[in-house]
Amino acid sequence: MFFLRILLSALLMSFSTSMFVMAAAESVENKKTTLDKIAVPPLLQLPDLSLRLLQQDQPPLRADNRAHWMEWERKRLQLMSQLGLWQDMVARCNETEGWLQKVELPVSDRHWLVTQRIQAWIELREYDQALRAIRQSLWQANTTSEAVLIWRQQLIHVYLGMDNINDAERAMRRYREDYADQSNEAVSWKILQAQLLMRVERPLEAYELIKHIMQSKAVALSFLARMQAQLLTPDAVRAATQKIFAKPDLKDEQRVLYQYVNYRISVVELDLPGQIETLEQLLINPARQSLGELFVASRNEITADQLWRSYEQYGMQVANQQQLLQGDDAAWLLLAEKSPEVAAKSLNAVLVLQSQQAPLQQRAIVQLVGLLEKQTDGLELMRVLFLRNSLLTVDALPLVLRYKLIDYALSRGDLQLAARLLEALKQPPEGQDAYDWNLRRARVLILSGQHESGAVILKELAKSLTLTDEQIDQYLQVAFDLQAIQQHEQALSAFMAIDLQNLSAKNRRELAYWKAESLQKLARYEQAAQLYLESAPAADGSYDPWYHTASFQAAEAMAEAGLLTDARRQYLALLNITGDPARQVVLRQRLQDLRLLNSAAKQNKETP
Description:
33 helices; single chain; mainly alpha
């Protein structure tokens, strides 16, 4: 017994100790702030969620918590930067600027916030805003401030972005004079210097500055620098990029850099087919927008208009070699049909841009589309080529192309583009049912935010046709989209447009329910209750699941309308006929809720 007591005592002490440790650990965990939690997995790998949590939990800025608030703010802006939320960063910095007029922060923190807003403006290419902020900051700051060095780098970045090469070169020269002892410069800063050196025709210096940097941006820039300095031939550079393209793990943002290098090679060599091939590759690369940061000239070079011009130039060159006359469009079309792919596209492009005969121009577009469809990502190239140029309007495109682009936009989930193309197209593609087509138009318009336009099409369909049961089901699915996006007035009008005389008993029953649902959402509870009750009875008089659901919703609507006695009667009637234990629990709970509401109402009346 003695040993048993000792053992029991030891176990109790062990248990108490473990409980104490667990309690202490739990206490430590509870004391962790959101800022602590996002610094470790799993939140460390979830920047969107981390940012949302920071925004919800960050303490307000006060005089007694400035350092703590700044910790949160640094992480908040870092997450925004990581996610590319540049406009949000500007808005946040503007917001904090107002607070800083009331609460003083250390100069270094103020400067850091200024730097973040300038960088966001640079990323947004709002260079005028960035330039004003940099000049004001440099004017006001102490010249020994650490932020001054960064602002002067940003200034050069802004001048380059504005294509103001003279000021950029002057700012760079002064920077180098003032910071000659900066031996450990950041990679991004060296790349920026190399960009400028390339722009002022000093490619050898640019190469020397970045030749040991293995980042893709630096490698791509060094290829062009060595070619410009005649250290490498265009063929040698092209061969080097082909080896890089063969890497299986090459990302789009890396691939686009080397595609641009090849484009520049084709420009230097006056190789129009090469320019066309690389422009096509660049225009379907989703990372092409990032090119403008490293290669400013690419903003004007890598465009749909430039591809059209390259097609046109090469098409004219091919036609001249074949001694074709301008204006003889039929001969051009015939030659295009017999030519290799690039020449065929180019000859058709000339007719698209220059033909004065609308039928032949339309035929040329169809032939060009047929050639593009054979290419990998040809639909994406068609989208960019025909919808992102300043040379053709959408109205000039043949219907067959517009239908292809609509289908492609829908496959990509680009509802805005699909709606823009669909809005004016009332006739369906050849071989497609008009009702299905217009129903599709209505759905796309509704889901893209054009609720009224979509609802108008729906109502026109309901009034102009005698609908089959299947068509009514399809119609209701689109009306449900209006309900799903809380456009209940429009949904109600779409339901009301259906002619009840042509409906089966089943469809009338269902339609009454959906009308009631929208009315309930619009707080028109009495009307909703009446329609739910109308919807409830089955044709055979049975208490089917639909009856239970509609009757229950009628009681809910009556309760929301304040008709507590009628709601109670409806709940009791359902309780008497249901054998489902789960439903019985819910109904009893609702009856209890009504009793509490009745009691509260009586007390309010008795209170003087």
